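Running this now, will post back.
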Amino acid sequence: MIEADNHRFSLSNNTIYCMAAGKYRKYFDENESEGYYISFSPDFIHLSEDYSNFSSCSDLFTRPSLPLAICIGNEIQYELESIINTMTREYNNYFLKKTEILRGLLNIFIIYFLRNLDDHNRETLQTRETALVRKFTGLVKKNFQVKKLVSDYAADLCVTPNYLNRVVKKITHTTASYHIQQQIVLEAKRQAIYSGMSMKEIAYHLGFDNLAHFSKFFKNNCGINFTTFKKGMLSVV
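Update: finished.
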């Protein structure tokens, strides 16, 4: 049995349970069930050099307040279990490019999973509110460099800023402005790690005319300043 935000669900055979980040969850082993638990932070996916390849995966984890249960067939179960076993082997060892391989395996796992959703489960993913949130996050990914206000995206989606924020918070448990800020921060982190650009160049690339404003924004959202983050990441890359 799984408990998620005070709701309990019985476990079923050949079923994958998807839960959004930040949800309280607890597992009760009543019938000696066997399975796998996969958990990853947003940065694990978003900081990939090839983040655009993961765009099809991100919608899956923009979940409603309750977990999504997806039944799978025996054939796809075998494929997914094979990927998980490879992920486990990589995770438990210190092979070269371990993190990059784990990102790739997770991407393959989710693509296999998405390809085998039945029509009913596809309809479950297409509710009006989740569709709005999906459109919002898609616009943020495309326009975060020039549009940094919730009102900008509300206008594009023909809704009020209050309504957009209310729906986004209901579905994702975070505000619309948080999504915008995190997209900017994640891009700043990627540029710091991979681009070789200076802090000033990255700030300009992200639409900040004032370097001090960018520096304050980064520290407020990351807890450390940009220079410290960059030095720390480059020392382990």
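The chain has a mean pLDDT of 80. More later if anyone needs it.
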